[in-house]
Amino acid sequence: MREQEQNVKKAVGWALREISKKDKESVFNFLKKWAKEDNKDTKWIIKDGMKKLEQTEQTELKKLLEKN
């Protein structure tokens, strides 16, 4: 989640989106844990990976990201 390489970040975001198609709750909880971290690469992955989550979950994650 702290990876700097753009292609790896894209791959992680893709994997999170794919997993969220089957298990949104696990992805949401995982991203929520990482949203507390103040790292630009982590934030990029979270924003990319949360696209398949419910709008309310996305809003909550965005608020957590703004705090850091």
Quick recap:
By secondary structure, the protein is an all-alpha fold. The protein has one domain.
Structure class: mainly alpha
Shape: globular
Q: What's the count of strands?
A: 0
Number of helices: 4
Helix and strand sequence: HHHH
**What can be said about the biggest beta sheet?**
none
Beginning-to-end CA distance, first to last residue: 16 Å
From the alpha carbons, calculate the radius of gyration and give it in angstroms.
Answer: 11 Å
What share of residues is helical?
A: over 70%
What is the typical, i.e. mean, pLDDT?
97
The tally of domains stands at 1
Strand content: under 5%
Low-confidence stretches are none
General description of the model:
By secondary structure, this protein is mainly α. The chain has one domain (6-67). Helices cover 72% and strands 0% of the residues. The protein is built from four helices and no strands. It has helices spanning 6-20, 24-34, 40-49, 55-67. Helix 1 (6-20) crosses helix 2 and helix 1 (6-20) runs parallel beside helix 3. The longest helix is centred in the N-terminal third of the chain and has 15 residues, at 6-20. The radius of gyration is 11 Å and the shape is globular. The chain starts with 5 loop residues before the first helix and ends with a helix.
